[in-house]
Structures are given as structure tokens and as C-alpha cells.
Amino acid sequence: QIQSKEDVFDAYVAHGGRVEASHWMPDAYRKTLIRQVSQHAHSEIVGMLPEANWLISAPSLERKQILIAKVQDEAGHGLYLYSVAETLGAKRKDLTDALIDGRAKYSSVFNYPSLTWADVGTIGWLVDGAAILNQVTLCETSYGPYARAMIRICREESFHQRQGFEALYRMFAEGTDAQRSMIQDSINRWWAPSLMMFGPPDTDSNNSAQSMKWGIKIKTNDTLRQEFVNTIAKQSRIIGVTIPDPSLKWCPVSGNYVFTQPDWEEFYEVIGGRGMCNQDRLENIRRARDDNEWVMDAAEKYEAQQGNYAAG
Ligand code: 3HC
């Protein structure tokens, strides 16, 4: 019998078909992609803030250069991803307004304060390490522009993770006892928020089933979280730090590390806008939008003139 357009689309993506901006797509597919891609972009932009604080206090010119390069990369990642959202018909101004009004989310992890220089290394090692595990899978996501943006983002993300690991490794090996305890304190504070980056447990993930069916999500939240724990547990021994989870233990039967789930109550508080830094982060973004409104106005006027010009 005649198949509906939705059935044909579902079969196409189920067989690994890549969807392009010019293709027909179900409204719900477009809507959930604008949701995920715009929140991913917001995460990149807000993600610059915890580290930006340390640009003027980096301990050496080399570390300052690395951090400047990383923060610039994050801005570029945000730009790529807002551009992906625009291929789906979203308007950047609407996306930014939704972020500032609290109608759109960004990664919970950026609502925690970066209190010491060790945090810059830990953010690279844990936060960018978690981000890259998730983002590598998105290189295979069914929406073409998103998948292609991810390829370049992942190349830069691996630099972010490596520089964080290397900063901690050197500081632990060459530093003083006080620096070593600063690193351990940093890991104690960022471990649970990094586990939360992968999203709630699969049982509470209301988008996963459909996103997996449409090939938007390739691996579930719990699968990626487990991969992250397995990776970091091994790397922590190379640096010489302790993962703050007494029940962390290798299970030869499952081939995974057993670990303690983060406090999901805290997670829902943070994504509900009641984390330590939510207000501060959004105030930052609002100020940037308002201070630079004249640039957006000029760009819009230019675009309109170009449009008129082209129309002759
Ligand atoms: N922070 C904030 N909100 C989160 C979250 C987190 N860590 N994890 C999940 N959520 C939200 C979801 O957005 C969803 O709410 P919504 O329906 O209003 O959007 C709700 O919690 C339930 O979660 P689901 O599992 O149902 O949602 P998803 O299927 O969308 O899965 C995700 C969540 C795994 C984050 C997925 O959206 C995804 O893969 N996004 C793309 C990657 C991304 O955004 N990474 C964020 C970090 S980027 C980064 O750190 C870059 C670094 O270099 C700065």
C-alpha cells in the first residue's frame, strides 16, 4: 500500500540516509534538531565563560596562548552550530533571545564556578573529554549539515582535551604538594557535573527514543556516560589523581567500571536555572547581546540592502 511521506523518511534515515536542508523532513524532526543544535551552540558560547575568567591570570605565556586558542575555538563552534540551526529555518536572534529568557537550555556543566587555575586543566580533561565522546558520535548523525560541522569541531575538541590532560599531568608531576591538592580539589568538584553532561539516565530521557529512531542520537546517554567513566578511570591513574567515587571499581564480567550515579536532583535544579552560576552566565550573554545590538542591526540593514540590490 502507498507509504506516507513520514514512513518513507523514517525508512530512509533508518537505513543510514543523510538528510540535507533541501530535503523534505517531518516538522517534528526539524523541531527536535533546532532544539538540540541550538542548545549545543548555546553550550559552546556559554562554555567560553568559565575559562575566560582565567585568560588574564594564566601562569605562563604558553598557557595563556593555549587558552586563548581554545576559547576562540569555542566561539567558532557556536557559530558553526548556529549556522546549522539556520539551515533548518531558525533565526539566530530568536535562538539567542530564547537562551537569555531561559526558554532554551545549555550544558548544565557551565553553571559551576572555575575557582582555581587547576580548573582550566580539569575542564579540558573532563568537560571537553565528555563533550568529544558525545560529539564524535554526532559525526554520524542523520542531518548532513550537523554531521559535517561535527567533523571540524571534533578535531579542535581533541586539542582541547589533550591540552587539559597535559596541563594536569605536568602540574601533578612537576608541581608542589599544594598544586597537587589543588588539582585533586578541582577534580572533586568537576567529576559529578561532567557525568551529568551526558543527560539524565536513559529511563528519564524523553527525547532519546525518537532521536535514536531518526538517527539524530547514535548512542544513548548511559552508554556514553559509561564509556566516559571507563576512559577517565584509566587516565586518572596516569596523572596520579583519584576519582572521587569510593565505589568506582573495574568489573571484569561487564568489562566496565562500576560507578556512582551523580545527584540527579541537583541536575534538575541546575537545568531549572537554580545552579550556582546560571544567573551570572545569562547576565553575561544578555549584556553581550545588548552591547552589540548595533552590529546586529547593521548586519540586518546590509542584508536587506543586498536583498534589494539582488532583486534589482
Ligand atoms: N545540560 C542541560 N540540559 C540537559 C543536559 C545537560 N547536560 N542533558 C540533558 N538535558 C536536557 C535536554 O536538553 C532535554 O531537555 P529539552 O527537551 O528541553 O531539550 C532534557 O534534559 C532531557 O534530556 P534528553 O536525554 O531527553 O535530551 P537529548 O536527547 O537532547 O540528550 C544531549 C541530551 C545528550 C545533551 C543531546 O542533546 C546532545 O547530544 N546534544 C549535543 C551535544 C551537546 O549539546 N553537548 C553539550 C556540551 S558541548 C560542550 O561542552 C563543548 C565544549 O567544548 C564547551
TrEMBL record:
This enzyme's EC code(s): 1.14.13.149
UniProt cross-references to InterPro entries, sorted A to Z: Aromatic_CoA_ox/epox (IPR052703), Ferritin-like (IPR012347), Ferritin-like_SF (IPR009078), PaaA (IPR011881), PaaA_PaaC (IPR007814)
Keyword Transcription set for record: no
Top-level EC class: oxidoreductase
Superkingdom of origin organism: Bacteria
Pfam families, alphabetized: PaaA_PaaC
Keyword tRNA-binding on entry: no
Signal peptide: none
GO biological process: phenylacetate catabolic process
Swiss-Prot/TrEMBL keywords: Oxidoreductase
Chain segments annotated as transmembrane: none
Gene Ontology cellular-component terms listed: cytosol
GO molecular function: phenylacetyl-CoA 1,2-epoxidase activity
Matching PANTHER family: 1,2-PHENYLACETYL-COA EPOXIDASE, SUBUNIT A, PHENYLACETIC ACID DEGRADATION PROTEIN PAA
Protein name: 1,2-phenylacetyl-CoA epoxidase, subunit A
Natural source organism: Novacetimonas maltaceti
Lineage, broadest ranks: Bacteria, Pseudomonadati, Pseudomonadota, Alphaproteobacteria, Acetobacterales
